[in-house]
Amino acid sequence: MTNDYAAAFGRLMIATLFLLGGLGKIAAPAATQAYIASTGLPLPIAGYLIAVVVEVAGGLLLAAGYRTTFVATGMAVFTLATAAFFHNNFVDQNQLIHFFKNIAIAGGLFQVASFGAGSISIDGLRTKRHRRGRALSPA
């Protein structure tokens, strides 16, 4: 039972980071797009929209524990891409720290993807309902 609470709390902690980041991007779209453009990536508007969707929608879905394997994997890949494209100046100590922070976050997301959301989640409720339905059906 303690593991269930730890899993839910861990998902919520990671999701909060993404939600705050996404809401910050919504509050400052021009600055976010300019930062994306400064890295040389094409289509800063598309990058902005992708970031907002992944961070806000992904954060909400992760917090709720819905389709957790898919969501956490997608968010981990996004986080690794962010590390590679935005935090790759290893001469700058701050960038190096951000790079490894993103690697650690991706690792946590891969853990969530591998081990699931736990029972305190939408996925957990769906699994419980599915098992109950199988138990009640005639053999």
Question: Could you walk me through the main structural features you see in this protein, from its secondary elements to its overall organization?
Answer:
The chain is mainly α and 139 residues long. It has one domain (2-136). It contains 6 helices and no strands. It has helices at 2-27, 29-38, 44-64, 68-86, 93-115, 122-136. The mean pLDDT is 93.
Helicity, in percent?
over 70%
Oligomer: single chain
Structural class: mainly alpha
Ends distance:
30 Å
Global shape? elongated
Mean of all residue-level pLDDT scores: 93
State Rg.
18 Å
H/E topology pattern: HHHHHH
Helix count from the secondary structure assignment: 6
Q: Could you give the count of β-strands?
A: 0
Strand content: under 5%
Short summary:
This protein has 139 residues and is mainly α.
What layout of secondary structure does this protein have?
Elements: H1 2-27, H2 29-38, H3 44-64, H4 68-86, H5 93-115, H6 122-136
Helix pairs in contact: 1-3, 2-3, 3-4, 4-5
